[in-house]
Structure prediction request, 291 residues.
Amino acid sequence: MITYSIDTPLIHCKNVLGECPLWDPTREVLFWIDIDLGLLHEYHPKTLDLKVHQIGQKLGCIALTETDHLLLGTKLGFAFYRVGDPPPANFLDVIPQGTGSMFNDGKVSPEGEFWAGSKGPRGTSKLYCLSHDLTCSILLEDLTTSNGIGWSSDGKYFFHTDSREHSIYRYTLRGKELTNKEIFYTPSEGTPDGLTIDSDGNLWVAIWDGGRVVQLSPEGEELAQILMPVSRPTSVAFGGQDLRTLYITSASVDLTEKEKSAQPFAGAIFSIQTQVAGLPSQCFMLRAKLV
Prediction:
């Protein structure tokens, strides 16, 4: 296994729970969120300009659309947001209030639908699908912390992380039907968090409480690792014009003062150049009108 290391951050942004890095090739912008503070970060690598937008509620995930609006998975539902506008209202609420659950990681499928999971009390979370017509269905139930998701390049498999189970699972994919659940990967230390898939079909996975990012083969073998100066990397995304920059978010949430002192870059965003390119992010395809 090849080992790389990162010593210093790209941006020392001190996120509480940095998550969901997302490269927008049209604007040449990296977006990411701070879940608990409800913040959307907008970074322009060419100018080094960084803007922070208040969303007005907790955020679980974000996605590109075919317009200049982002699709947000908020605390309890979904909203569209044009960067720089006032905080948006949800157009659809999905998760009932008072359940202790909220949206977490999500990603747009190859078919242009938004798959987003929730996190909450053990066994109460779900993986949802927001379809083109803005209806929402349930794909998986009995989850606890729905996290990183991805689709194999040949379309045969769907990868899904339940972080409370410390594992990535692989499902056989038939349309939106998920069958033949099997454990794909369990790290020796820590738990899998967000993930992305490169142009060779390998998975790149942030290992929460493991202090590293791992590259996995389509069979689940560790090919490489990136050692981090923080214990809680949260998610990864490829960006840049050639999609060979791997961006890594991290968290400082729930660290003790001693741990924070030992990890001054906790909550920062990091980057590293890779030999393999990533894949462009899919855009959510809206085929309905908002009422």
